[in-house]
Amino acid sequence: MLVKTPLLAVDAPSLYFRAFHGIPTSAATAPDGTPVNAVRGFLDMLATLVRSRGPGRIVCALDADWRPAWRVALLPSYKTHRLAASGDPGAEQVPDLLLPQVPILVAVLDAIGIPVVGATDYEADDVLGTLASTQPGPVEVASGDRDLFQLIDDAAGVRLLYCGRGVAKLEVFDETQLKARYGVAATAYVDFAVLRGDPSDGLPGVPGIGDKTAARLLDRYHDLAGIERAVSDPASGFAPGVRAKLQAASDYLAVAPRVVRVVRDVPLPELDPVTPRRPAHPDQLLALAQQWNLAGACDRLVNALAGSSAGSTDDESSASARR
């Protein structure tokens, strides 16, 4: 079912990591000197998305488990390069100055009234996949993660707002744009990603198989199952070199699709995604804005949420985040 009010489903880790690395820590600090660059940058990016996309519903997804054990059991190399040097098998290598900012961001979003959702044993990608599959469309997923191209579905009204070059230069992908960029349909994107690999996720891919070869194979054989049938058929006319590469990677190909494919039925708590037109907890927001020197960023987001009617006349909305 399609409704008139689009859902903006935000990949919060993707955006706050980008904000942290895009704004110097010295450029955004609390009165006590604590860096808040990731929080300020995230709030401004979200305000930009709200102004440009006009969502009637908003949810931010978090990583409750950035490297789920069930994915690691399938593919031990999954995100190993991002493990913390501390030796803690579950700790992600996150900049020391970023980690303390995440609870601040969550508190600010809660005060504004924007749901922030994570799920035990699942990544933000899985939360977004579930939202895209269970919430009525249109749904616009904002992320810089290419894996989420698999969620695009024109019939269900699901598009990806790809923020690979930043929110100000986001690219809106539907099935036509995805096909033009990579040569594959959204339904084939998981297999495409498995074949070509992704070093940022510790996904090795099939050595010697890049974007073009992966797209060509999927165009001819439709999916991994079709490719594997052709590989095992001596009469299929498969190029010997490519056949040998795929045969050598058979163990990887047997498990990788389950690692790359986002989960679409994550148990999520009940939530109210309706865009808040004014802060849910204005006193709490004011206190947070003062404590962390976020008045300007909070005001910009609150005014964006309120829409064009916010202006200077809506004292409760815009003044709630001021000193």
Q: Between the first and last Cα atoms, what is the distance in angstroms?
A: 43 Å
**Stretches with pLDDT under 50, minimum 5 residues:** 308-323
CATH superfamily of the largest domain: 5'-nuclease
SS-derived structural category: alpha/beta
Mean pLDDT: 91
Q: What's the number of domains?
A: 2
The number of distinct β-strands equals 6
Radius of gyration over C-alpha positions, nearest whole angstrom: 21 Å
Binned, the helix content reads: 40-55%
Distinct helical segment count: 14
**Any idea what the shape is?**
elongated
Q: Reading side by side through the largest sheet, how are the strands ordered?
A: 3-2-1-4-5-6
Q: What's the story with the biggest beta sheet?
A: 6 strands, mixed
CATH top level of the largest domain?
Answer: Alpha Beta
What is the chain-wise order of helices and strands? Answer: EHHEHHEHEEEHHHHHHHHH
Give the second-level CATH assignment, the architecture of the largest domain: 3-Layer(aba) Sandwich
- Portion in strands: 5-15%
CATH topology-level fold name of the largest domain: Rossmann fold
InterPro entries: 5-3_exonucl_a-hlix_arch_N, 5-3_exonuclease, 5-3_exonuclease_C_sf, DNA_polI_H3TH, FEN, HhH2, PIN-like_dom_sf
Organism: Natronosporangium hydrolyticum
Protein name: 5'-3' exonuclease
Keywords: DNA-binding, Exonuclease, Hydrolase, Nuclease
